[in-house]
Design brief:
10 helices; 13% strand; 5-stranded parallel beta sheet; 215 residues; alpha/beta
């Protein structure tokens, strides 16, 4: 059962998302909050698996709350609109596991919660990849890779590149002619060696380090 905390400053939105999620056999809504501060408190008390986090809220916004939860094992799924792209990028850097457009179909919301809960793939890789490329292109790339990347084996570096390109574990396994479990092991080692939470941060690290060049 996936435990979800719904965070949005609009009560009708919270109730709508909560009703949709609670209707699923494998998802239960354990709480709701109207701002980031309340969200952080409830995460510490309720221990949800996933936080559905709005970005613009009074007092403590979604980005700040996501940073405050950076050391917590909870997965943060950011809710946004296209005009908040820069905010989304910063949210991913702060530790969000993925993002979803607020006007997305219900089926996409449900799939997103399940994907983020599993931690298996970066949500909406095609859209996320475009956002990351746009914003990394606008920022000066580091001339030298971070020293941490030198700790990766050639195979781990290869896997990181494919993760950054939006491939799933199954797709990476097929591309490299490896067992999917072997790929999962490589991904886990990459995250551990680079001190990253999940695949979302791995994509950011790959682009910002210059390992992947936008375009």
């Amino acid at each position: 059962m996936i435990r979800v905390l719904v965070v949005d400053d609009q009560e009708m939105v919270r109730e709508g998302f909560s009703a949709l999620l609670d209707a699923q056999e494998d998802i239960t809504v354990v709480g709701a909050a109207g701002d980031g501060a309340a969200a952080v408190r409830q995460v510490h008390g309720l221990r949800p698996d996933v936080v559905l986090m709005d970005v613009r809220m009074p007092e403590v916004d979604g980005l700040t709350a996501t940073r405050m939860l950076a050391d917590d094992p909870v997965k943060v799924l950011v809710l946004t609109t296209f005009d908040l792209d820069d905010y989304v990028y910063e949210a991913l850097r702060a530790g969000a596991s993925g993002f979803l457009l607020k006007h997305a179909p219900a089926s996409e919301l449900l799939a997103a919660v399940r994907v983020v809960a599993r931690g298996e793939a970066l949500l909406a890789p095609s859209v996320t990849k475009r956002l990351i490329e746009d914003f990394v292109r606008a920022r000066p790339a580091r001339a030298v890779r971070p020293a941490a990347l030198s700790a990766l084996t050639d195979r781990e570096t290869e896997v990181l590149v494919l993760v950054a390109r939006g491939l799933s574990n199954a797709e990476i396994a097929a591309h490299l002619f490896l067992a999917e479990q072997t790929v999962k092991t490589h991904v886990s080692r990459v995250l551990m060696k680079l001190g990253l939470r999940d695949r979302a941060q791995a994509v950011i690290a790959a682009y910002e380090s210059g390992l992947i060049v936008p375009g």
